[in-house]
Amino acid sequence: MAKIRFLEADPRFAATLLEFEVQNRRYFESMIESRGDHFYHLPVVEQSLITAQEERNQDEAYKYLVFIEDVMVARLNFRRIERHGVASAEIGYRTAEHAAGKGITTKIVGMGKRLAEEQLSLSLLYANVLPNNTASQIVLLKNGFSFQNRYVGRLADHLPEQELIYFESYLTEG
């Protein structure tokens, strides 16, 4: 497999990110809630990347664009950073349709776990997954996440409550 690179979300990648999101919109929306038509415009994507930098600077979230060669294949996010008690974050990811089913997402999440531990000093990652997103559940299980429970909650603040499956993985022993 060609080398996978993680690049910090940055406004200079706005056009690349917009192209990635537009090309994969129908695929993503078959599994998760739509971002809405308003998202798919360059100024909105640029602003989302500026916000990502601000969140990074405030240790609130860390967002990455993932490339193989010069092709963007995924996004990987660590959000809801908690530094009190156990250092933790919610992991989230989106992989391009053309990369699905090839083990790429499994590899990206595994690399993301190492990045979270070694560069972000996190000890616990957790994920909330929709019950119909079995591919994501499999990726998590292959990367050492364990099922914890099912509950009703929100994937994001602006989305309605729905049934979710909660997974977690400790990155360090102890």
What's the gyration radius in Å? Answer: 15 Å
DSSP strand content: 25-35%
Q: Separation of termini?
A: 33 Å
Beta strands, count: 7
Q: Classify the fold: give the CATH topology.
A: Aminopeptidase
The CATH C-level class name:
Alpha Beta
Helicity, as a percent range? 25-40%
Poorly predicted runs of 5 or more residues: none
Mean pLDDT: 93
| Biggest pleated sheet | 7 strands, mixed
Structural class: alpha+beta
Strand order of the largest sheet: 1-2-3-4-5-7-6
Q: What is the annotated CATH architecture? A: 3-Layer(aba) Sandwich
- The figure for the number of domains is 1
Please state the overall shape, judged from the principal axes of the Cα atoms.
globular
What do you see in this structure?
- There is one protein chain.
- By secondary structure, the chain is of the alpha+beta class.
- It has a single domain (4-170), classed as Aminopeptidase (3-Layer(aba) Sandwich), CATH 3.40.630.
- It contains four helices and seven strands, in the order E-H-H-E-E-E-H-E-H-E-E.
- It has helices at residues 14-29, 42-57, 104-118, 134-142; strands at 4-8, 61-68, 71-82, 88-95, 124-129, 146-153, 162-170.
- Strands 1-2-3-4-5-7-6 form a seven-stranded mixed β-sheet, sandwiched between helices.
- Helix 1 packs across helix 2 (42-57).
- The protein is globular.
- The protein starts with a strand and ends with a strand.
- The mean pLDDT is 93.
Brief overview:
With 174 residues, the chain is of the alpha+beta class.
